[in-house]
Structure formats: structure tokens, C-alpha cells
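Annex B. Sample input.
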Amino acid sequence: MYRMKKGFCHIIIGVVLVCTGFPKAHAQDPHFSQYFSSPLTFNPAFAGYFDGTNRFAVNIRNQSVNGGDPYITGTFSFDTKILKNSIGSNDRWGLGIHALYDQSSGGIYKNTYLSLSTSFNKGLDAEGDQSIGIGLQASFATNRVDFNNLSFNSQFNGSGFDLSIPSGESVNNRSVSYVDLNAGLLYNYKDDLGNQFSFGAGLFHILSPKLSFFSNANPVLSPRYTLHAGAAFPIGEQDNFFISAHFMEQNGATESVIGGAYGLGIGATDLTLYLGSWFRINDAIYPYIGLQTPAYQLGLSYDIIKPDLSRVNRFSGSSELSFIYFFNKDRKKKGIPCFF
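Annex B, continued. Sample output.
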């Protein structure tokens, strides 16, 4: 029975590759539930937009399907501020680099991405409470398929899938590479009470790169559009509350997410404990727990799929871990820092 399910999964992957060229069945790029902890994969305008001199981030996502063959996505990034003495005191010019690895169906389909980002956020007032920014990101991607372990309808022998039977598929490439360009906009505002608000938009796959593994197909990557908003509210001397939402669309597939976390200051220490949850509409809810100090931020979440989807899949869910380290961060700053 497991062999049958595994073969069927591989057929689905083959259909997706032929029809859309996308690594996920819902035709969306790899992305994270904790998008607020993965700034350079979410909006290029976040490059260099943080308190401190440098920022290092790691995100790891593990998604199980039917109890096996998980999707695994991991990324690390580093960004910094440049030309601080040559621009206005309330301006920020950032430069960042990030690498992302994504694999599905037990490693049959693998993607790697290497991206360079730059952004400029211009202060709009003397106090630096408002800013608007633009970011650009150039990417080089490689997609690989292990066709030796991929089964098709023609290889079903009546009781299972026999990979020794010719598939009849005209395979043109086992590895496809391309260059792409992404862009983003960002607006931030802080009022007299210390409340902070952020709004942004992103556009990915501006160059519409081709991604084809078969000689009889010539698909391109559809653009991905992102809109997002966030707000942070200080509560008393130590606590704060953070909310955020985003909407994404790509090739007819959409994703809408909204949620928040409460930050509880721990005694006289610099520690803040975050407890919260985000809701991916018509899909899943994922509780979040995080720990923040002036030097680092650690977050853990787990996607709980809606009951109707759980009845289809014996087990479906995604665990995600994020870690961000800040160099020389202002110890007076509070709140989940990636958006502010």
C-alpha cells in the first residue's frame, strides 16, 4: 500500500512539472509560515531594515505528507547597512545575501536559490518616525529532478510501479538553472505613543524565467504578488503586542494569513517571551512560541491542518524553526524586530 501511494505521489509531481513547472502542487514558491522571521525571502525592501549593524537569520521548515516523504525547506541570510556616513541620519541603505534549499518527495525534486538584495529606505521626517523604501533582489536558481526514482502511468504493471519499464516521457533536462529578479516596497510609521505600523508589497519572478524538464513543454514561472501589513504596540514597561497579515497570489493560487503574538517581559531581565498564533485561511492554524533578547530571536511554530484535510491525509503538518542574531542591536528596542 505504501508503494502504491508513493508511486501515485510521483505521478502527481510529474504532472505538476509538465503543466506548471512549480515545486509545490499548489503552484507557489517555497515560503515560510514564520514569514516575519525570514525578511529577505519575503520582501527585498527589508534588506538592512533593522536595529543594529548586521543581521544573520536561519529558517528550517519540515512538512510531512501522508506520514512520509517530507518537504524540507531551509534558508540562511545575512544583511547589513552600508554607506551610513554618506546618507541621511534617518535613511537606511541595506545589502543582503541569502541562500535557500528546498526538496520534496524524499529528495526527488530539489531546488537551490542564491540571491543578492539591496534596499534603500528614506526617512520622511526629522524624527525618523516615517520612512518609505524600495528593494531589488537578483536570484540564481537551480532545479533538479531525479527521474530515476520518478514513476509515471506507463510504468504501472497492475500491482505496482516498475521503474525498469520505459516511461515514454521525453526528458529534455534533469537540471534547469535560471536568473530572476524580484522587487519590493515598504512603508513604516511610528506614532507619538510608540506604536509602529508597517505596510509593504512584493513582486517576484519579474523576468518570467523558463522552467522546463520536458522537450514537449515550455512553462514559465508565473509572477508572485505579495501584500503585507504589521503593527506593534507597547504595553506597559516591558510587554508588547504584535500583529501581522499578508496575502499572496501566484498562478491562480492564493494564500491569506493573519495572526499575532503577545510579548511578555520576564522580570528584570532582557528576555521577552512571545506566545501567539497565525491563521492561514481555509488551510491551517499554527501556534507560535518565541524568545527574544537584544542579541537574538528564536521562534518555533507548528502548522495544524484543518480537520477536513487531516481526514484525507493520515498525517499532515509542518514544524518550523527560526533563529535571528543581531549585531550591536539597540537594547532599548522592543517588539518582534524583523518588520520594524
